[in-house]
Specification:
The protein is mainly alpha-helical. The chain has 19 helices and 4 strands. The chain has helices at 14-20, 23-26, 30-46, 52-70, 83-95, 97-100, 108-144, 164-189, 208-214, 224-229, 232-258, 286-309, 322-347, 352-359, 366-375, 380-397, 406-412, 419-423, 426-432, and strands spanning 149-154, 157-163, 266-267, 349-350. The chain has a two-stranded antiparallel ribbon with strand order 1-2. A hairpin with a 2-residue loop joins β1 and β2 (157-163). The longest helix has 37 residues, at 108-144. The structure holds arginine. Arginine binds at residues 22, 26, 82, 108-109, 112, 316, 318, 320-321.
């Protein structure tokens, strides 16, 4: 029997029920639904809208329902219309008329808007925790190889020598901004829609501030129409999660490159690598590749949410039921990427000798050679040109800046002296840059 059966003369068709039902997605919100209902019932009793006795019966029975689901004594009916319906029906089966009073002054529209916010508030906390752990893991890796020198790239061409730590610090900075974005969106989301009713509030003398405070909100939504129809917070969070995936995907791309034989800057631990079914020599970086691939899901979730919302007239429309699949998937994906990447990075072996080798000999210190001439009084443009000539001569002679003789240097510019060899030492190059 449907909650709304009174107006209808027929049972709903199974296909309607299956199509309409959101229980497979929203059952994971059962604890939040129950917590919201307990706050609502307590407020109704405190305001004398229901009796104190009914209020207590409801909150006690809801606590039992939560414990029963938690411990597997009560199974969520997969044919129920949604989690709100299931909990209310179970409540009424257990305590009769008192259960039927719970929905006084409330609609599923403000109820679902509340549940998503409560659920996502905890999810934000989880993601922030994992982001901070990844930041710590990357910082620790950088610290452990504090003086390891590697080539820095632009256009994936060796550009200037940098430290491995400096490279990782770029990612910790990105991730710190990600933490800030999630915190910021979570703060904006933290207003209770409860009391918005279906769209136009309610005629009962409810106390919205009371439920908002009981549920840990910073206040309540001022427009009841907006309260039930706003999903900005889902879009903002999906956008913040998408940016997290951009960052994780870029880091993953580097790890894939670095673990190739061509680079061999790192080696992934066996426990975090996979093999090939045919090629016995293979050790594949499946984890970072999957993270790179899964970024597409999260961007898709963001696009889903934007598209679902863009044409909806106020206030609630059933289209909005699609919000949960998208935002839940985005959170699930980001969380699993973070919890897998963290131990993979923690256990990966860094090979500083290979990084150092890759940084040497590729004219990566040419800028420093030019800067050296500047220190000898040459204008930068002239120093740049002279160094360019040195590089061209080295390539022709099959030499590097380190093996080019002082006489050869002097032939190109008489400002060169023996000091150039100190100036172009990679260790000095990174030190001068404060890395
Ligand atoms: N399952 C619905 C959703 O997720 C709950 C709200 C139902 N409201 C309604 N007017 N049918 O959006």
């Amino acid at each position: 029997m449907k909650l709304w059966a009174g107006r209808f003369s027929k049972e709903v068709d199974k296909r309607t029920n299956d199509f309409n039902s959101s229980i497979s997605t929203d059952s994971r919100m059962y604890r939040y639904d129950i917590t919201g209902s307990m706050a609502h019932a307590s407020m109704l009793a405190a305001k004398g809208i229901i009796s104190a006795e009914d209020g207590k019966k409801i909150t006690d029975a809801l606590a039992d329902i939560m414990a029963d689901i938690d411990e597997g004594r009560l199974l969520i009916d997969p044919n129920a219309e949604d989690i709100h319906t299931f909990i209310e029906q179970t409540l009424t089966e257990r305590i009769g008329d008192a259960g039927k009073r719970l929905h006084t002054g409330r609609s599923r529209n403000d109820q679902v808007a509340l549940d998503i916010r409560l659920y996502l508030r905890d999810e934000c906390g989880e993601v922030i925790k994992e982001l901070n752990e990844l930041i710590d893991t990357l910082s620790a890796k950088g610290d452990a190889y504090g003086d390891a020198i590697m080539p820095g790239y632009t256009h994936l061409q060796k550009a200037q020598p940098i430290t491995f730590k400096a490279h990782l610090t770029a990612y910790t900075e990105m991730l710190k901004r990600d933490v800030g974005r999630v915190e910021d969106a979570a703060k904006r989301m933290n207003y209770s829609p409860l009391g918005s009713g279906a769209l136009a509030g309610t005629t009962y003398p409810i106390d919205r501030a009371m439920t908002a405070e009981a549920l840990g909100f910073d206040g309540y939504t001022l427009s009841t129409l907006d309260g039930v129809s706003d999903r900005d917070f889902c879009i903002e969070l999906a956008s913040a999660l998408s940016l997290i995936m951009v960052h994780l995907s870029r880091l993953s791309e580097e790890i894939v490159l670095w673990s190739s034989w061509e680079f061999k800057f790192i080696e992934l631990d066996d426990a975090f690598s996979t093999g090939s079914s045919i090629m016995p020599q293979k050790k594949n970086p499946d984890i970072p590749e999957l993270v790179r691939g899964k970024s597409g899901r999260v961007f898709g979730d963001l696009m889903t949410l934007l598209t679902v919302m863009k044409g909806l007239p106020l206030a609630y429309n059933k289209d909005m039921q699609e919000d949960k699949d998208a935002i839940f998937d985005a959170f699930d994906t980001v969380k699993i990427c973070l919890t897998t990447l963290i131990p993979m990075i923690d256990t990966m072996k860094v090979l500083p000798e290979n990084m150092r080798k890759a940084a040497a000999g590729g004219f990566i210190n040419a800028t420093d050679c030019a800067d050296y001439l500047v220190s000898k009084g040459l204008p930068f443009r002239d120093a740049y040109k002279a160094t360019g000539e040195v590089v061209a001569a080295c390539i022709k002679a099959g030499k590097t800046l380190e093996t080019f003789s002082i006489d050869e240097y002097k032939q190109i510019c008489d400002k060169f002296d023996e000091g150039v060899y100190e100036a172009i030492k990679l260790e000095n190059c990174v030190k001068r840059r404060g890395m």
